[in-house]
Amino acid sequence: MKYEWRKQEKDLYIPKQKPELVTVPEQKFITVKGKGNPNSEEFSKRIEVLFSLAYAIRMMPKQGYTPEGYFEYTVYPLEGLWDLTEEGRKLDTLDKDELLYTIMIRQPDFVTKEIVDRAFEIVRKKKPNPLLDEVSFDTIKDGLSVQILHIGSYDNEPQSFKKMKEFIEENHLEIATLRHREIYLSDARKVEPAKLKTVLRYKVKSRK
Questions:
Q1: Domain boundaries in the chain?
Q2: Mean pLDDT throughout 175-182?
Q3: DSSP 8-state class, residue 70
Q4: Does the model's pTM come out above 0.70?
């Protein structure tokens, strides 16, 4: 049976449209960093390189190599960690050119550095991409977090962040870092803005 994150990890990937508290365990990711407007071609190229590696890992058994512990699974969705430059933080309105981001795709637990290295070799042969040199394999643990399902345009996310901040305040918590996470459940190239589904997440800690 195929492992599907939408079904098996609903608590992490399919939250409600109201803020909720969740504990996110340690997870493995292939990641790439960048700066600037996410509507740029450079951002699209970074997404492309991540998915080419993610699919190279998933398709390994069809290439004649089955990693130890491998199981059939659906490739995880694209995620992003978002922050602003010092300059961007001083501005009253969001300047997308001042955004700092790490975009990434989660990997199943059986994935090791050796498997990722093998995926790099496959992609280098099939579809060489200079951005491959910027990709890392990382382990990230969000721990205690507040998340919400945002439906609609990315530009309307402040409405959902406001609800999250109110929830955090009411529950005697505080945001642990200015960086927030977004998990993209929709493909923005195929879904109209009003129907986009995005998980928004803040790492939080108890207020002292």
A1: 5-206
A2: 94
A3: -
A4: yes
